[in-house]
Every structure is written in C-alpha cells, then in structure tokens.
Amino acid sequence: MEYWNHIYEHFNPVAFSLFGLPVHWYGLMYVLALLAALYGAKWYVRRDRVPVDTLTLDAYFIWVEIGVILGARLGYILFYDPDTAYYLMHPWQIFNPFKNGEFVGIRGMSYHGAVIGFFIASALFSKRHHIHFGLLMDIVAVAVPMGYVFGRIGNFLNQELIGRVTDVPWGIYVHGALRHPSQLYEAVLEGVVVFAIIWLYRKHRRFRGELILLYGFAYGAMRFAAEFWRAPDPQLGFICCGWMTMGQLLSSLMMVAAVLLWPLFYAVGKKRSAR
Length: 275
Prior knowledge:
By secondary structure, the protein is mainly alpha-helical. Helices cover 63% and strands 7% of the residues. Helix 4 packs antiparallel against helix 6 and helix 8 runs antiparallel to helix 9 (210-226). The protein is globular. The N and C termini lie far apart (61 Å).
C-alpha cells in the first residue's frame, strides 16, 4: 500500500516522445476512450440490430469528436478558466498548444461543455443525413460510458482533478497531502455504473431517445456524488452554500434537463410511432 500511496513519485506521465514531442498517457487514454465509444457503438448496433450502417456510424463519430473537442475546450473557458475574458478577446489562443515557447498541449476541458458540443454536432448530423435524432442518442447512451472510464483514468495518470484530503489507507499523496483517488471513483461511478444502468434498462425503452435521457440523469447523479470526494476547482472553490462545486451545479442542471425533456421526447417518439 505504501507504493500505491506514493504512486505519482514513481510514475512518468509521458509515455514516449514522437519527433521530439512528448506523448502523455493522458492523451493516449483519451484516444482509447474515443475508440472504446466507437467500437462499443458498433457492437451494440450489431447485437441489438439497430438500423444504422457502419459507414454512417463512422461519419457520425467524426462529427461528434469535433463537437466534443470544441465544446469541451470552450466550455472550460466559459465555466472554469479564470482568464475567460482574455480568451474571448484572443480566441486564436484557445487551441494554442504552446505556452512561453514551450509545447504543453491543450489543457483544460469541460465535460459539460463537451455535452453541449456533442448535442449540437448530433443535431446537425441528424438533420443533414435524415436520421432520427433519438436513434443516434440511444446508440451514444450505450457507447459513451465505457469510453468515459478511460477518460477518467487519463485524468488520474495526468495527476489532475485531484481528490480531497483524506486519511483512507488507499489515498494518494498529491502536493504533500494524502488525497482520495477521486478520478478512479469517477471512472467507476460515471463509467461502469452508468453503463450498467443503461444496459439493463435498454430492453425496457419505450421510445427513441429515452436512453440518452436516462444517461443524462444517471451521469448527473453519479457525478454529483463523486464531487464529494473530488477537490473543488482551485480557481473557483465552493460556489454555493459552502459545499457545492461547479461540477455539482452543472450536474444538477443536467438532471433537471433530463427530467424536463422526458415528456417532450416521449410525446415526439409516440407521435412518430403512430404514423
């Protein structure tokens, strides 16, 4: 357990160098997350005989990846970054991977911003390719959670989004203090648990798009719970009531949105089924 407590002292976040540029485990985990989501979607489509062909699914994921990356970065700038005004005045700096002449990569991504970018990209793809929006959403609801596990492992390996100070024996020393490995808690809660909920419920789905609403509510609940072990963003701290973090606020809004959209999705789904 002693080795685990001091794991960061023995771990190199850089996996290897490519043409002189460092390739971090963090980036590799995000690549694995995207691949897991894509191939998870293809497996689900084949297994449950969802009426979407492979080429369409490949094209859709390209659109989604672009939407997620743009949304995640812009969301971080708007929701979390203390230099929001600077980036709004210098938008070309948002995706600049260099800082003071040194390559540092693009850092600072927001999950909730990624969700917004994902929905915009999905809506545009659905309209252009004349595919039922709810059908795409149900595929994503099944595919994304397991990919999300790799994303949180990436956060852990990159020593970011650290946990709160604790005295549990499995804690990790970060900045001289023993902390919860909250990224791994999130990998389980927001990835494995949410996937299990979606997978078990999918056969009981009553209308297209219901699974994405269930995902939104389940993820919001798991993220809200996980934030009690995760340290609040240092530039924001607790934003409400002396205990609520920005992640909990956004997760609460996500759950509320899922509940409010449920009757609308249900009505549209039933109307289409009646035709």
